[in-house]
Fold this protein.
Amino acid sequence: MINAKLVAQSHPNHQTIVQISETVAFGGKELVIIGGPCTVESLEQMETVAQHLEGSSVQALRGGVYKPRTSPYAFQGMGEAGLDVLAQVRSLYNMPVVTEVMSIAQIEAIATYVDMLQVGSRNMQNFDLLKALGQAGKPILLKRGLAATIEEFVMAAEYVVSHGNPDVVLCERGIRSFDNYTRNVLDLAAVVALKQITHLPVIVDPSHAVGKRELVAPLAKAAVACGADGLIIECHPEPEKSVSDARQALSLEDMVSLVDSLKPVALAVGRTISETKGVGFKPTPICCVA
Amino acid sequence: MINAKLVAQSHPNHQTIVQISETVAFGGKELVIIGGPCTVESLEQMETVAQHLEGSSVQALRGGVYKPRTSPYAFQGMGEAGLDVLAQVRSLYNMPVVTEVMSIAQIEAIATYVDMLQVGSRNMQNFDLLKALGQAGKPILLKRGLAATIEEFVMAAEYVVSHGNPDVVLCERGIRSFDNYTRNVLDLAAVVALKQITHLPVIVDPSHAVGKRELVAPLAKAAVACGADGLIIECHPEPEKSVSDARQALSLEDMVSLVDSLKPVALAVGRTISETKGVGFKPTPICCVA
Amino acid sequence: MINAKLVAQSHPNHQTIVQISETVAFGGKELVIIGGPCTVESLEQMETVAQHLEGSSVQALRGGVYKPRTSPYAFQGMGEAGLDVLAQVRSLYNMPVVTEVMSIAQIEAIATYVDMLQVGSRNMQNFDLLKALGQAGKPILLKRGLAATIEEFVMAAEYVVSHGNPDVVLCERGIRSFDNYTRNVLDLAAVVALKQITHLPVIVDPSHAVGKRELVAPLAKAAVACGADGLIIECHPEPEKSVSDARQALSLEDMVSLVDSLKPVALAVGRTISETKGVGFKPTPICCVA
Amino acid sequence: MINAKLVAQSHPNHQTIVQISETVAFGGKELVIIGGPCTVESLEQMETVAQHLEGSSVQALRGGVYKPRTSPYAFQGMGEAGLDVLAQVRSLYNMPVVTEVMSIAQIEAIATYVDMLQVGSRNMQNFDLLKALGQAGKPILLKRGLAATIEEFVMAAEYVVSHGNPDVVLCERGIRSFDNYTRNVLDLAAVVALKQITHLPVIVDPSHAVGKRELVAPLAKAAVACGADGLIIECHPEPEKSVSDARQALSLEDMVSLVDSLKPVALAVGRTISETKGVGFKPTPICCVA
């Protein structure tokens, strides 16, 4: 019924492993937790985030520098200056970094600075972008479209893989529905289905799915329980001051607590979450950052 | 924003406990698992189900005798003869029984025979039925409407409670959406929200939500992980021969395995699932059933 | 694909005509326009409405006396006193009257007083009510459920007809969707499809569909253009003071203008709208109302 | 509530006129009908279409040469060779031509050959493409996203206009919903709302909205009746042989009949449809096509 070829689950135990750094890989027994703000606002902001998270089980940082905004008059992201911020925190804190790519012209620069390129929901069927990402040379985090069927989502991944890039991680982030109590409806059945249909890693973004921080932690546990390979969660040093999506970001303290609370759930379903080095642990700074 | 009075969570640790038998209660630390077929087809069928499940952690039986069917020409359920079947298995196997009520005229008979009356999705806003159930004298299992908002769901419960019956358990069972890969979209964020908004127990029906048996077990785990107080899951001695919803029913063996697999997840979030007495354990039959 | 029997279009020119008074019938060349408030509030209110509309092309009155409300604390309608109001205006102004029935127990009383019983969206799959309406002895106005598929809608009509009542008029009134700019999404393709699938008359309720009065008139024209057999439109002497759905009701003046503006559209598609007798025309009052 | 600036309706009678040829303009009293196949398949195919339609009231041709397809293995369109076909029929039959642009890299070539660049539903929030189209130098036909709110749609137009291109025509083409009887749900209330919110022309694509040819004509009439400024309708010399969307294309004969049937509806709402020169009228061929 779903006519994927390259991403289709062809035999039961095939599982693609997508490596984004020496130690961080999606699709293995260990789950990958990505944390960080919706938008990169300054080096200081990202350093504060990284300092808090580096000692926790959060293994990768997120932060948007090219932002898809409904209004052309809303802040569109720091652009290249933001990429520079990401490169600095990446190097200083030794954490891989994920950021969104919105157009073919941005691919080269982003791929130079970060470890994983995110395709946002609004671009899930931007087929020319998907084809170009087949040659990006870096792993892709492909978010489900706002109203994409499971078939369309799988076939979007097939576009990237069939154009040369096997390193695709799928991300369920909620779909549009009639109830505005939550921003979107988190579709965990899609996670289960995608794990059965494809051999790609599948992660979950509960923050964008629900849009209310008080709902994030229980849904993160649910995602782990049903077999997700990781999570991407928004957090911010001062959530209420976030330039975008302020209502859904966790404080850094809550982020660390949330991740800790996931560990027993992961174990209950045969998975693990990386060791905590200790909240606030700060490694020796590297003197000369590129 | 949601103007519930009686069912609203007024102070943090208020939790309604809904007791359906001496030993089975929703809302406590122990989760309640309800199992059984979509439709009661015969005494033999229900006995087979009960024999398998009584020794497992499944604590209550389900089975429809009045069936809401899209077509007037589809089997409408066994009716009163089915109530008699339910009464017999209830007595023989000492398990509380849940069945659907479709109209005010059925309340008295159903309340005489079973332990909990289910209001189906299509009747969630059948307000006259809800009012009448305020006087049913038995606990109510209220399923979310196919496209009911969280507010409408909460207020439907308020109808029952404000008309005299405080024993309401909410059940998330999937909402309508655009993708027909699954039958509905299971909305676990609603479970989390309902637990925050109300003090009522909230359970999940993953079977009707997804409509495909291979997706049920992981979603049952997810439901437990995000804080559900129980599950209602379809199972059948010969799923492919079920007179209704054959595609989603589990075999009895898979049902028992599923329930066992939930135990570590429950523990991981501070909950428990009742002891297993041993699969297939058969108590001494009672000689004279009413 | 849709397994209706009695309501299915079996040969191209079969069209059921549903007569609700000597001169008002759905399904013929002449369209039927029903107008009136969401809720019957007083005899005075209904008289004001009737006085304005009786001279226009509006041929029937609507007004709810049993109201399905999300909250049990909202006004539930005038009940039997409201039926009495409807009976009086019906008799005084010689206009047939439509009102909603919410439960089996109300059928007899409502059928005694009014000319057509409306089944609301929330009860479209209240199958026991549908079956009982098969014996109501009066025509049924069946509104589409909030998230009912076309198949489910057709089969709901089949319930009524197969239980003995061939006089069913279908009403499209908008379905739930993700955008809250309008209250629901008016699905005129459903009207076209229903006219092809069944031989029943199909009318449109643009007021509930969109929930904003400034959108009603153009959509009423669209409904006529695509083949609807009539319209049901909310209007109120003082829309902003309506006890329910104030945002969508037209003033009585706007209602009359709207109906006039439909006439050329009706003619353009080979239909007619009844003669205007002149706005405000008042017939000799009947001295002794029942 | 909707924070558009440049496209917002600021005073009641402001209406943008978008000219795509000397004689064809959107937004005036005369409606614009665009016809043609989903996909350009050959010069012969497009000539057959143009021969049939040039004598009718269809004023512009459509045909995709870059095709957004769910699967990377489906036909992706003729590409530049298709642009050449469009240029030839445009010149031979003196009809303006519309085709879809999928990426920034295609803009220059497409803008050289055709009269209007279409942004497809999947790219409605491809913001970098929208920004670049601000400099395209040709009018834009912006289709509503599959699950775009009215606000998002309006703001997508604002992106194009605020980047330098005032010539934007909006196109409602159906939104995703739960019923698969039709492909999407045609949202004519959005047309009415968009006409009130913005001063841009708004047209309707009933073919993609419903996906079934037997529903297209009545919905085209409905679109005209509610105030649409034009229509874009799929037709094909042999609909059942169309390489894409075969189920929804009209035959060329049906297309001409449909357009004729719209004329009285247009008149009924104070609009006109261009004169018919006579079906099949063939102008003197131009000897040397570029």
